Each structure stands twice: as structure tokens, then as C-alpha cells.
Amino acid sequence: MIGRLRGVIVYKAPPWLMVDVGGVGYELEAPMSTFYDLPEVGREVTLFTHYAQKEDAVNLYGFLRENERRLFRDVQKVSGIGARIALAVLSGVSVEAFGQLISHGDVTALTRIPGIGKKTAERMVLELRDKAGNFVGTGGGGGPVLAAAPGQDPVAEAVVALQQLGYKPAEASRMAREAALEGDDVAVVIRKALQSALR
């Protein structure tokens, strides 16, 4: 079981990043809540990790904060929810905001997260309500620091990231185009697109 990694960031391409730990490159998938606060490529980072092994795949997920990893694990305990939806939850709302949605039973807001229908949202509220206090008041999430590499199109990168989070191609494209302003980097475009989707 890999529970934590400390190493140098080799690359970042939401939702993927690679961390070099003593010459071994670990490829991880991370929610946007982590991407917003990652240091630049070439800088050291410490990530809490979640290791998942299935019949056809082995995945490693990375989180800057322990409360993000806890929410990622707790959400997957709800029947019918897997890692993809858990990542979408963390990419769409902060840990604290998710706790508030659960404690208030806000099914409508939860259904705006890709992959979550009304029945799944109702199940989440029912099964996680007793844990909502663990999420509220745990903080987390500063400003975006992810920068696109020179020559890359932040809107195109944002579209790819939004599709990875479960949005359909046309919807991801529309969201990114509507959110983007001149000079925005990829993290800013993604953050604004996700915030507008939850309104």
C-alpha cells in the first residue's frame, strides 16, 4: 500500500501528474482541488495517495490534503459510486462545500456534478449525512497556481480535463469557451467552468 509520496513534479496535465521519487516516476490522477495548489514543475511536493487495484487496472490517486483523500474514500462507499465520480466531486466543490451540500440535503446541487443523477445524489445524502461533520470546517483550497506550458492552448487543455471529469465533449467545449478570458491559464479556465456548472 502506498500512502504518501514526496518527490519532484515532472509534469502536470489535469487530471494527471507525475512525481519523481528517487528516480522512479509515479503517475497519479488527482482532482482539480489538488491541481489548483500544486507547486510548479521541478518543485518538490508531498501527496497523500490512494492505491486502487482492480482486475484490469492499477491506479494511484494523489491529494495535497488528507481531508480530500478521506472524502474521496468516503464517497466511494456509497453504492454505485466509483473513483471517477469521486474525483468529479472533489474537482467541482471544496471538501467543506460538499459537507454543507450533504448536511443540507441539497440534491439539486449534487446532480450538477457529472455522473451524479437524482437517485445517486439522494443515496449520497442518505449514506453520508452522518459523516458530513467530518467535511465541514476542514478547509482547503487556495488560488490556482497551475500554468500551461508555452505554446499550449489553455482552453483545449481545459476541455480535455473536463472530459476526464465526466463531461461530454460538446458540453466540456462549451463550458471551457464560456469560462475562458484572455490570459487565463488552464487551471483558471477549469475552475471557472466548474463553478459556473454548479450554479
Please tell me about this protein's structure.
The structure is a single chain. This protein has 199 residues and is an alpha+beta fold. Helices cover 44% and strands 19% of the residues. The chain has helices at residues 32-35, 66-76, 83-92, 95-103, 107-110, 118-128, 132-135, 154-164, 169-179, 186-197, and strands at residues 4-13, 16-21, 24-29, 44-53, 58-63. The longest helix has 12 residues, at 186-197. The chain is globular, with a radius of gyration of 16 Å.
Describe the structure in brief.
The chain has a 5-stranded antiparallel beta sheet. It has helices at 32-35, 66-76, 83-92, 95-103, 107-110, 118-128, 132-135, 154-164, 169-179, 186-197; strands at 4-13, 16-21, 24-29, 44-53, 58-63. By secondary structure, it is of the alpha+beta class.
